[in-house]
Amino acid sequence: MIEMTTLKKICEEFRFEGVLTECSPYGDGHINDTFLVVNKDKYEETVQYILQRVNHIVFKETEKLMSNIENITSYLSDMVREDELEGGYEVLKLIRTNNDNSYHKDLEGNYWRAYVFVKNATGYTFAKDNTMLYSAGKAFGQFQLMLKDYPVDSLFETIKGFHHTENRYENFLKVLEKDVHSRSKYCLDDIQFVKDRKNITTMILKALELGEIPYRVTHNDTKLNNVLIDNDSGIGRCVIDLDTVMPGSALYDFGDAIRSCGSTVAEDEEELELLKLDTARFDAYTNGFLEILKHELTQTEIELLPYSAIIMTFECGMRFLTDFLDGDNYFKVHKENHNLIRAKNQFRFVKEMENNLEVMIDIVNRYC
Ligand SMILES: Nc1ncnc2c1ncn2[C@@H]1O[C@H](COP(=O)(O)OP(=O)(O)O)[C@@H](O)[C@H]1O
Ligand SMILES: [Mg+2]
Fold first, then answer.
1. Which of 91, 141, 262, 313 could lock onto 289 through a cystine, CB 3.0 to 4.6 A?
2. Which ligand 1 atom lies nearest to the CA of residue 116?
3. End-to-end CA distance of the chain
């Protein structure tokens, strides 16, 4: 719990309009601490902001992260100004501190930042319908399209090797070898499942290294709730949560989005019989994403899209399994064997997609 007096002091560091009336926890983000700031301006009008304490355990180099966000948001807002985008697309806007900084570091070493509050829009954990997924696909596609000429090498890597699937595989083997909690005996099939798919761990990486696909500015956390959906029009109004924006592949963003929205059940559903690839959802997201990007993505990127969904889901499952073997150090667990349950769920989804690869390829081809 952060005291109100502390929050008030932090708010005073930022160039907020008006007088503070309320500052309270907001949203359902899992990484940062997010607050809604409500002020009254001199006309008694309400002005709202988002205040965030950055999680500096996950993000160790916060200055670099903030430099990325500052550069990306200012580049995007110049672009929106020059070339009014259809449909009211909005760019996340930082509020600067009194010292003209993009963040405030408090005496305890915490990093704080603030954004303009995006009004009349909602972040959804579960899609209400497939149109919402189409909108999210468009919004993440638009985000990538707008950044296509951004000098990708100038961005810092905020989490080193985030989608280096091969390194994650090596790490899995190391943890398995130590097996410090003697848990490997509970998941021999899952361990074999991972080992059987060693070849896919290098698929995207090799294509990047050989220059067969380009490095692009990628969001890297393309969950549905990182697009705010307009309450009236239903369009994906604003892409948020830019902490993991860094050099990567468009395939990471597409693949991880399908991982998080393409299955019929939640990520920790234990009844694996219920888990299917929801082709209608896959279709909706792909439709939105490719409507924006079909002329920008290369032929190889397009061919790899269905595989990227498999690889990103496999990578995530492998991370859950690694954490289970390692004693649940990274992902928060809420029940016994939670990480193993999640891993089994992701691997089941991988199998489902492997079995439906042709369907996925057909859908991708239909929208190109
Ligand atoms: N500029 C904004 N306007 C409105 N709501 C926002 C804004 N930024 C964040 N939020 C809300 O706060 C939640 C958490 O923010 P986010 O940046 O995604 O943090 P986390 O990294 O913890 O997921 C979001 O899911 C969204 O509901
Ligand atoms: Mg978020």
1. 141
2. 1
3. 49
Quote the tokens at residue 310: 């498999």
Fold of 4-117: Phosphorylase Kinase; domain 1 (3.30.200)
What protein residues have CB closer than 5 angstroms to ion ligand 2? 29, 226, 241
pLDDT in tens, 129-160: 999 999 999 999 999 999 999 999 999 999 99
What's the pLDDT at 80?
A: 80
Residue whose CA lies nearest to ligand 1 atom number 14:
29
Phi and psi at 53, nearest 5°, equal: -95, 120
The closest alpha carbon to 159, from 30, 92, 34, 245, belongs to 245
- Whether 317 and 168 have beta carbons less than 8 Å apart is answered as no
Rg (CA), the chain: 21
Q: Left, alpha or beta for 124 (phi > 0: left; psi -120 to 50: alpha)?
A: beta
Tell me phi and psi for residue 286, to 5 degrees.
-60, -40
Give yes or no for residue 72 having a pLDDT over 70.
Answer: yes
CA atoms within 13 A on the CB side of 255: 30
Rounded Cα gap, residues 351 and 275, in angstroms: 10
Nearest to residue 287, comparing CAs of 268, 266, 261, 269? Answer: 261
**H-helix or E-strand spanning residue 359:** helix 357-366
Q: Are strands 227-230 and 216-218 parallel, antiparallel or unpaired?
A: unpaired
What CATH number should be reported for the domain whose range is 130-366? 3.90.1200.10
Ligand 1 centre distance from Cα of residue 259 (Å): 20
Backbone angles phi, psi at 310, to 5 degrees: -65, -45
Within 10 Å of residue 295's Cβ, how many Cβ atoms? 8
Neighbours of 198 (CB within 10 A): 11
Our answer on whether the CB atom of 58 is closer than 6 Å to any ligand 1 atom is no
Q: Where are the domains of the chain?
A: 4-117, 130-366
158, 243 contact by CB (below 8 A): yes
Calculate the alpha carbon distances from 253 to 72, 194, 244, 320 in Å.
Answer: 17, 22, 11, 19
pTM greater than 0.90 (yes/no): yes
Residues 105, 68: Cα–Cα separation, whole Å: 17
